[in-house]
What does this fold into?
Amino acid sequence: MSASVLYDAPGPKAAVRNRIYAVAGSLAILALIGVSLMRLSDKGHLAPEMWDIFNYAGIRQNIADAVLATLKAFGLAAVGSLILGVLLAVGRLSDHKPVRWTATTFIELFRSIPLLITIYAIWVGFLTDYSMWALALGLSVYNGCVQAEVLRAGINSVPKGQSEAAYALGMSKTQVMVSVLIPQAVRAMLPTIISQLVVTLKDTSLGFIILYPELLQTARLIASNTQVNSQYPYVSTIAVIGTIYVAMCLLLSALATWIEKRGRRAKTGIAVAAAAETPGILPVGSLAAPRAEDGPADGTDANGADGADGADGADGGNDANGGVSKTD
It folds into this structure.
């Protein structure tokens, strides 16, 4: 019987007991779902008429416009939060105390304030007539602070030898940060960065508080202004809009997974150029010795003596056997 570091492997009785608990828990969950569906059906929320409203062209167009508005706000917030996150992370790691203290205060302040309050304050105080920019700015500020902490953790996780080697090459701190530390930090923390972007996408639903026509606001308008069988289709509307949110988040996660796998497969490094072939010089890596029957290739005899000068030259050269010749 094998054991794990965190817990002991269950024995036969414990395994049977765990199976019983799993089956009982699954049956209880299925029973709760069944009871909920029965109650909704009794109240008429699952009637086909409640779902037929999505066949109307006007409602479909409203949902399509809401999806586009949501993606617009998300795109602006994603870019803004990443840029702000890089600036705040670099500022918090700065050697200058005023810069470091300012960045730290900004991060801790806006991470502590609820995001809904930040969005509402920006909308009321500065951008009353521009709800999209108020939503995007509020999301950028909050998520930028979170991304800054993620990037800072990634930069601190890079081995110190990387920066020391870069400084030894004469690079400045800005060059080390931009060329060495941040690329490695982004690659190391990419799953966390994408997870925070998914949170940013879901947080666009807070735009309903400032009347921005994103998905949640559009769902509220559809459900409250459309009456079917003397009832408002809140259940069907929530189900459809919730499915759209889930689909967008799954697509973003799939895109992140693809980018991460592509980054791992990317070939890095500098390719070594092939050495130019020079007459009389063997290519690098060649261990083959010249054959005796091939004869001299560069004017020397087989024993390495200069064939032009001979063995008994007047200048005291080497003889054919490698010895020093005598002069008369």
